């Protein structure tokens, strides 16, 4: 308080809302504009005390009483035991709330409390980082492409279910450098996908019947074998084997023209059906070397090329001579 410098003034006027005799020992402080500061000065000990009308004046009254007692006591009676015994009778809460006196100047509060502008900037920066991470997980383009392709009316979609679910689960994989809240967010998304998706063996067979994803790279060899067996059972159930027994099957050694141009690298946010299925079909395809293999085995091991311009049903129509029974199943199922 720059009282001596003349920036602040003291006055003996007591507040009308708080009468009391103890105000005769206190001086209120005001600035040059006659605006009262939330501090008073004790005329006995010259200490600066905090004052707030809302918090009442109990602490000020006690301070004046203690100062008056100290002045009236002889110096020989004011021993250390006198103060220690008195303080020892007070609880910690009383010391902190009732008897705690603020002796620092008002400007020191700015040192203890950070700048609100800096706090706002920090919170905004953290929120923006979380927003970017969540946008990376829930890409609008990915969600839109998946919805469009899986809900198409003019094209088969059953064979796309497994590749798309696999891609969505990859996006929910937890990384080592992910923050705790991002890990929790991904776990909730993955749990939601697992609870809301209901897959049957028809999805496996449909994925196998597409020439791009027929290798079922995300399955074990045992699971692949079970899908092949399920396909054979499906052929028998639909009596497709009996209807095509007399059709002469052509061997698996077929020369297939490779595309002349290397396909362009797709953008990160551009998801076509072929990209999703090619990602699902990562494993290499083996050549067929046995003559006694059935049609399913020959189809599973053959290297095939699919044009982006033709649909899966058009492909099966073109290759129905080589795989007569599977082509009938594909037309029925897809």
From TrEMBL:
SUPFAM superfamilies: Ribonuclease H-like. Residues 295-334 form the HAT C-terminal dimerisation domain. This is HAT C-terminal dimerisation domain-containing protein. GO terms for molecular function: protein dimerization activity.
């Amino acid at each position: 308080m720059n009282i001596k410098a003349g920036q602040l003034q003291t006055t003996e006027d007591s507040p009308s809302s708080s009468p009391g005799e103890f105000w005769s020992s206190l001086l209120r402080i005001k600035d040059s504009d006659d605006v009262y500061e939330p501090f008073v000065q004790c005329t006995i000990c010259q200490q600066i005390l905090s004052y707030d009308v809302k918090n009442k004046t109990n602490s000020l009254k006690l301070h004046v009483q203690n100062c008056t007692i100290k002045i009236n006591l002889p110096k020989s009676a004011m021993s250390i035991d006198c103060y220690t015994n008195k303080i020892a009778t007070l609880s910690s809460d009383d010391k902190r709330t009732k008897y705690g006196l603020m002796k620092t100047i008002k400007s020191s509060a700015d040192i203890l409390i950070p700048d609100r502008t800096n706090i706002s900037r920090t919170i905004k920066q953290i929120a923006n980082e979380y927003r970017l991470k969540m946008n990376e997980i829930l890409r609008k383009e990915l969600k839109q492409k998946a919805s469009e392709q899986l809900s198409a009316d003019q094209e088969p979609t059953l064979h796309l279910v497994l590749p798309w679910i696999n891609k969505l689960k990859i996006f929910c994989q937890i990384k080592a450098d992910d923050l705790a809240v991002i890990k929790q967010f991904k776990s909730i998304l993955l749990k939601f996908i697992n609870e809301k998706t209901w897959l049957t063996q028809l999805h496996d067979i449909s994925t196998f019947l597409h020439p791009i994803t027929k290798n079922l790279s995300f399955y074990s060899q045992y699971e692949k074998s079970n899908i092949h067996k399920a396909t054979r059972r499906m052929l028998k159930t639909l009596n497709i084997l009996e209807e095509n027994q007399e059709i002469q099957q052509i061997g698996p050694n077929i020369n297939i023209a490779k595309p002349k141009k290397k396909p362009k690298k797709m953008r990160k946010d551009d998801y076509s059906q072929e990209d999703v299925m090619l990602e699902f079909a990562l494993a290499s395809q083996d050549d067929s070397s046995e003559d006694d293999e059935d049609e399913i085995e020959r189809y599973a091991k053959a290297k095939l090329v699919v044009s982006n311009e033709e649909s899966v049903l058009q492909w099966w129509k073109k290759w129905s001579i080589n795989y007569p029974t599977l082509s009938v199943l594909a037309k029925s199922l897809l």
